[in-house]
Amino acid sequence: MDLKTVKDLIEFMKDTDIVELEWSKDGIRIVRDMSGKGSRANRPESGVSVAGTSEQKEKPTVKITSPLVGTFYRSASPESPPFVQVGDRVTKGQCLCVIEAMKLMNEIESHVDGVVSAILKQDGERVGYGDPLFIIEEL
C-alpha cells in the first residue's frame, strides 16, 4: 500500500457518513476515527494509526442494517461509553447500539461473532429501515 492509497482512503471518508473505519491490506493496518471524540487509547493526534500485521487474507464481512426508523445511539446514555468501538470483538447477540423509535429504546444486536471494522452512522443520527449501521468482519 502506498501513501496515495492512504490519502485517497482518508479523502473518501470525508465525503461519507462513516464515523470510524479499520482497514488492512498487505500487512498494513489503518484505523481512522472521524467522530472527533478520540475515544481510542494511544491514538495519534492526526486520528490515523498505521501498523504492520501478520494477517494477510481478507475475511468475510457482514453488514448490520437498521430494522426500523428512528435515532441511532452508540451508548445507553450520553454519560455511558459506546457499546462498541472499531476493532472490538463482538459475539452473536451482543448489543451494538440502540435505536430510539417512538420513545422506545430498541437494542440492535450482532448477527455474528466477529470484529467491528466500521461504524457507519454518527451518534444521534436519524436512520431508516435497511440503512447500514455496522460492518462486522466474521471470525
What layout of secondary structure does this protein have?
Layout: H1 3-14, E1 20-25, E2 28-33, E3 48-52, E4 61-65, E5 70-73, E6 89-90, E7 95-101, E8 104-109, E9 114-119, E10 126-127, E11 132-138
Antiparallel strand pairs: 1-2, 1-9, 2-3, 4-11, 5-7, 5-10, 6-9, 7-8, 9-11
Summarize the structure.
With 139 residues, the protein is mostly beta strands. The protein has one helix at 3-14; strands at 20-25, 28-33, 48-52, 61-65, 70-73, 89-90, 95-101, 104-109, 114-119, 126-127, 132-138. Strands 1, 2, 3, 4, 6, 9 and 11 form a seven-stranded antiparallel sheet that branches. Strands 8-7-5-10 form a four-stranded antiparallel sheet, with no helix packed on it.
Structure description:
The chain is built from one helix and eleven strands, in the order αβββββββββββ. The protein has 139 residues and is mostly beta strands. The chain folds into two domains: 3-52, no CATH class; 61-138, Beta Barrel (OB fold (Dihydrolipoamide Acetyltransferase, E2P)), CATH 2.40.50.100. The strands form two sheets. Strands 1, 2, 3, 4, 6, 9 and 11 form a seven-stranded antiparallel beta sheet that branches. A hairpin with a 2-residue loop joins β7 (95-101) and β8. The longest helix has 12 residues, at 3-14. It is globular, with a radius of gyration of 15 Å. It starts with a helix and ends with a strand.
